[in-house]
């Protein structure tokens, strides 16, 4: 969720950008029902091209301090390995009761269980021992998002090119070489499952490198999942100071938000 920071606003000139199709929609009023309550319109933002920084999100009108700008669900999530026993394996909310980390992940609700059912069946059948060990030794977190995406693709939940809309990072030769090892471990994890070979055809070095190049510069670090905005304000500073993170997530539209050192919006998950 994004709200305008106090005493700050998004004030970007749309006439300096080439407009792209809106990433939002609004329901039209039903003329047969009179009178009708006001309907919420689309978010006051749109994706456009900047003059020098690629695509970004621009305000379509004046935005006041504290006004809700946009809400979005993450496209991919994965908990940190240290948080597997205390957060939901899908939404990353804190679990009421600590789970058994050896089980590979638990869910906070029936809704999350049902939403994750297809790809979780793939996930839990794979052997992640070598993959997890390699990520732990090398302090890697983003391969877990690639792992989640791979399980979603195999399960038919999404397509292999679903992140292509996002801007990729320019990778060094050394980084690309290391990613080849990660991809090999990821693919090998599925060898002990009953996943058909043709369902793994997409999972090659090219796919993995393209996915990681997008995840690395578009992923959000999820430090806590709050029950309210007040909870967020009360604990955010302490979480950041302690370096606490419950996982990472990739969003689609929020990845286009312009950002710099002079932050004009606040983001939080609850």
Automatic annotation (TrEMBL):
Any Gene Ontology CC annotation: nucleus
Q: Which organism is it from?
A: Kalanchoe fedtschenkoi
Q: What is this protein called?
A: SET domain-containing protein
């Amino acid at each position: 969720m994004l709200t305008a920071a106090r005493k700050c606003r998004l004030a970007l000139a749309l006439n300096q950008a080439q407009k792209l199709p809106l990433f939002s929609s609004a329901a039209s009023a039903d003329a047969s029902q009179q009178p009708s309550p006001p309907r919420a319109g689309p978010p006051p933002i749109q994706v456009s091209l900047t003059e020098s920084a690629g695509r970004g999100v621009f305000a379509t009108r004046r935005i006041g301090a504290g006004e809700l700008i946009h809400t979005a669900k993450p496209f991919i999530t994965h908990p940190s390995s240290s948080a597997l026993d205390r957060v939901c394996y899908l939404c990353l909310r804190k679990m009421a009761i600590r789970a058994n980390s050896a089980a590979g992940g638990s869910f906070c609700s029936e809704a999350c269980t049902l939403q994750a059912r297809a790809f979780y069946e793939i996930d839990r059948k794979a052997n992640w021992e070598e993959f997890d060990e390699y990520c732990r030794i090398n302090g890697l977190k983003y391969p877990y998002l690639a792992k989640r995406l791979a399980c979603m693709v195999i399960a038919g939940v999404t397509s292999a090119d679903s992140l292509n809309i996002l801007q990729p990072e320019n990778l060094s030769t050394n980084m690309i070489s290391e990613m080849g090892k990660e991809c090999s471990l990821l693919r090998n994890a599925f060898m002990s499952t009953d996943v058909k070979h043709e369902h793994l055809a997409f999972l090659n070095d090219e796919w993995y490198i393209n996915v990681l190049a997008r995840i690395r510069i578009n992923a959000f670090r999820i430090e806590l999942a709050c029950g309210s905005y007040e909870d967020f304000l009360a604990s955010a500073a302490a979480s950041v100071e302690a370096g606490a993170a419950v996982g990472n997530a990739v969003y689609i539209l929020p990845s286009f938000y312009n950002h710099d050192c002079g932050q004009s919006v606040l983001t939080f998950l609850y």
